[in-house]
Design a protein that fits this description.
The chain is an alpha/beta fold. It contains eight helices and nine strands. The strands form three sheets. Strands 7-1-8-9 form a four-stranded antiparallel sheet, covered by helices on one side. It has a three-stranded parallel sheet with strand order 4-3-5, sandwiched between helices. A two-stranded antiparallel ribbon has the order 2-6. α2 (23-32) packs across α8 (182-198) and α3 (84-90) runs parallel beside α7. The mean pLDDT is 92.
Length: 230
């Protein structure tokens, strides 16, 4: 069994693994037990009582976090020439079509979000094998396939994130950084978790939100009481 460091042991001692913490309390504690020297990501992991193999329970969507994630997202926009100026003015980092497709085909994936116009999706389809496994393929359900590319870019830059349930029924999402105040982390967590509660599929039976855990990079996980979600 690997020996844990004194810092890790001290952090774990502050977390009661048998306790369900109030959401606000957990967001204060996450800052205390952070082990990194850098501004670590704070992530929420939600285990849902759904079957992702059923089409109506394969949850995916978007949410705009009130305080953003603390990370500036690099946005690629695939569009027709008449929309390039609109995308750039909204803050897109890379704009184009054939030249960008060629670049991505060559293995370039130095970006976080892809926005595309419906008219160019036939061309983008060939990038599926590269973008798909990385969760970067644009999709109408997340608002990343749209003729309004400027608005889509502004949303992403303003804190809009996308999420999707994995094959185990779990949603993983960043809700900020450890440098955020507990209040900002709570606001962001409530926005995400409240959205998931509203999206509960009518066909889902039994307990819907089975467990909610928050953790920063390398820190122990803190279990949250779903009843404390506002």
């Amino acid at each position: 069994m690997a020996k844990i460091s004194k810092k890790r042991a001290a952090a774990e001692a502050k977390v009661d693994s048998a306790k369900l913490y109030e959401l606000d309390e957990a967001m204060g504690l996450i800052k205390e037990v952070n082990l990194t020297k850098f501004d670590a990501s704070v992530d929420v992991h939600v285990r849902l009582g759904i079957d992702p193999r059923k089409a109506d329970q394969a949850l995916r969507g978007t949410v705009t976090l009130p305080h953003g994630t603390g990370k500036t997202k690099r946005v690629v926009v695939f569009c027709t020439p008449d929309k390039e100026a609109e995308a750039k003015e909204a803050g897109a980092d890379y704009v184009g079509l054939d030249d960008l497709i060629q670049k991505v085909t060559g293995g370039w994936t130095d970006f976080d979000v892809v926005v595309a116009m419906p008219q160019v999706m036939a061309k983008i389809g060939r990038l599926g094998r590269i973008l798909g496994p990385r969760g970067l393929m644009p999709n109408p359900k997340t608002g990343t396939v749209t003729p309004n590319v400027g608005a889509a870019v502004a949303d992403v830059k303003g804190g809009k994130i996308s999420f999707r349930v994995d094959k185990f029924g779990i949603i993983h999402s960043s809700i900020g950084r450890v440098s955020f105040t507990p209040e900002k982390l709570s606001d962001n967590a409530n926005e995400l978790l409240g959205t998931l509660l509203r999206m509960k599929p009518s066909s889902a039976k039994g307990i819907y939100m089975k467990s909610v855990t928050v953790a920063s990079t390398m820190s122990p996980g803190i279990k949250i009481d779903p009843k404390s979600i506002r």
